[in-house]
Amino acid sequence: MADFNTQIQQSQQQVSEAQAQIEAITSRIETARAKMKAGESDIDIENASLDDVHAHTDLMNANIAELIMGLDDVTAGFSKEFDEMRSKTGWETFVGIFSKGKSEAMRQERMREASVQDKLQDLISKSDVIVQLLEGQLTVLNEQKTKVSGNLEGTLDEREMVVGELETLKAEIQGMDPKIIELENKISVEQDAAARTKLESELARLNEQYNEMVQQEQVKIAKSQTLERYIEKGKTWVDSLQNQAATQMVLINKLQTDTKQRVVLYDALTSSLKTAQQQDVAHQINEIGVETDQKAQTAMAAIGSATNQRMAEMMEKHEDHMVFAREVLEAKAKSDERFARRFEKIVEKHDKNLYGG
Questions:
Q1: In the chain, what are the domain boundaries?
Q2: How far apart are CA 120 and CA 86, in angstroms?
Q3: Cα(170)–Cα(221) distance, rounded to whole angstroms?
Q4: Is the alpha carbon torsion for 125, 130, 136, 138 positive or negative?
Q5: Tell me: the pLDDT tens digits for 168-198?
Q6: pTM higher than 0.85, yes or no?
């Protein structure tokens, strides 16, 4: 399990670094928004940083996915180990030829010292640690998404207003063209100097107003383009955060379902071990040829009645247990399918042992 511990530590470090990068990009977006409010138009949110976050997040999730599949492998290995616990070893069978009691004592001692349940509990504990890690990352992703979405909402409203102002300005500029053309035509045919001078003064004012409006149009266009660029960067980051959150939820779902399955397995192993021991004791009692008196027979009858009642209760509970176990297995199948779709390459590499290729 040392490798698991090392991988968990690596994952914790990777998650911490990813969170720092995510917060840095969100901070850069917030800074860009503040600059726009201050009237600065030179806004740039580096794509390189976003690519770095994606690369780092992919590495982090790949490492966690490998961890999860490693936990699955260890869990699957319990079946063989448990079968070995229930059956006698070659040496125990050999000893049984000479001393059945000694053979049984050796097997029971080995069962008492067996650590399958401890290992299973350790796996459940490690699953919980990874789930907590992923849930912490999911919380950060959702917090950052809320921040950026809030900024975007304000920016979208602002751009809508700027575009509206721009359209109004364009309409006013287009409306001035006929007036200017009309004045220019009047000036070209006007013979009176005083009237001509008046028309030229009016044309100069219109041209000045026209030029000012054209300049405003350029400013509005620049602002609209800046807002548009900011919006596109923000949307890209929100989409990235949503995709990352979706991946985290797939991993969390897989781990939580696996943990439920391991709890079922833990209960099954415990019950089976107890049943095996009870069967051994029953066989031993059955083999003891002791004559019993009436009181003993009465006592045994009472015990038998109580045992039958207990057995009926156990069978009823067993049905509930099997229904729950079936539900867990169905949920696990769905969880594994989602996990396999999301991490297809990692699953293929794991299943075909294509490491280092």
A1: 2-156+236-287+304-351
A2: 17
A3: 11
A4: negative
A5: 998 888 888 888 888 888 888 878 888 888 8
A6: no
